[in-house]
Amino acid sequence: MVCLGNICRSPLAQGILESKVKDLQIEVDSAGTAAYHIGNSPDPRSIAVGKKCNIDISRQKARQFSPSDFKAFTHIFAMDRSNNENIIAKTTSEEDVKKVRLILSNQNDVPDPYYGEAEGFENCFTLLDDACHQILNSLHNESR
Ligand code: 4NP
């Protein structure tokens, strides 16, 4: 799960998907394309919106997306088009490119809630919960 800062959207996406795949052997992680918040905890507003649904993201620490992630992960979900482009720019093979997609199946961006109000975080949660539900279904289909 990749956003810009790895403190608002992608930590929530990680926590939500982890909560849905808990019985499967799937590693979920998140990162930011920017370096601003490396080592920081998620934004308190993301922690709060997760907590309402018993999803604890408070122990996550932000890290920057690394080209080694193309080797480490089978699927890379970008929160918006700008981050998608930044990830694609780091690919070195067609195999890498195929791993990268926008998290919302309608190709919309998950709006960046950082400079907004709490409502933006609620909206993120709703969008990501639905997207992670769809991801889980498609992972099931791929493994058949
Ligand atoms: P995120 O949100 O990409 O969802 O983690 C942001 C967090 C921090 C900043 C921008 C977006 N920032 O400019 O510091």
Notable traits:
single chain; 144 residues; mainly alpha; Rossmann fold; two-stranded parallel sheet; 6 helices; 4 strands; binds 4-nitrophenyl phosphate
CATH superfamily: Response regulator
Ions, cofactors, ligands: which are bound? 4-nitrophenyl phosphate
Mean pLDDT: 96
Number of helices: 6
Helix content: 40-55%
Assembly classification: single chain
Question: Spans with pLDDT under 50 lasting ≥5 residues?
Answer: none
Topology:
Elements: E1 2-3, H1 9-20, E2 31-32, H2 44-51, H3 69-72, E3 76-78, H4 81-88, H5 94-99, E4 100-102, H6 118-142
Helix pairs in contact: 1-6, 2-6
Bound molecules: 4-nitrophenyl phosphate (4NP).
Residues 3-9, 32, 36, 112, 114 line the site of 4-nitrophenyl phosphate.
Give a description of the structure.
By secondary structure, the chain is mostly helical. It has a single domain, classed as Rossmann fold (3-Layer(aba) Sandwich). It is 44% helix and 7% strand. It has six helices and four strands, in the order βαβααβααβα. The protein has helices spanning 9-20, 44-51, 69-72, 81-88, 94-99, 118-142, and strands at residues 2-3, 31-32, 76-78, 100-102. It has a two-stranded parallel sheet. Strands 3-4 form a two-stranded parallel sheet. Helix 1 links the parallel strand 1 and strand 2. Helix 1 packs across helix 6 and helix 2 crosses helix 6 (118-142). The radius of gyration is 14 Å and the shape is globular. The two termini are 23 Å apart. The structure holds 4-nitrophenyl phosphate.
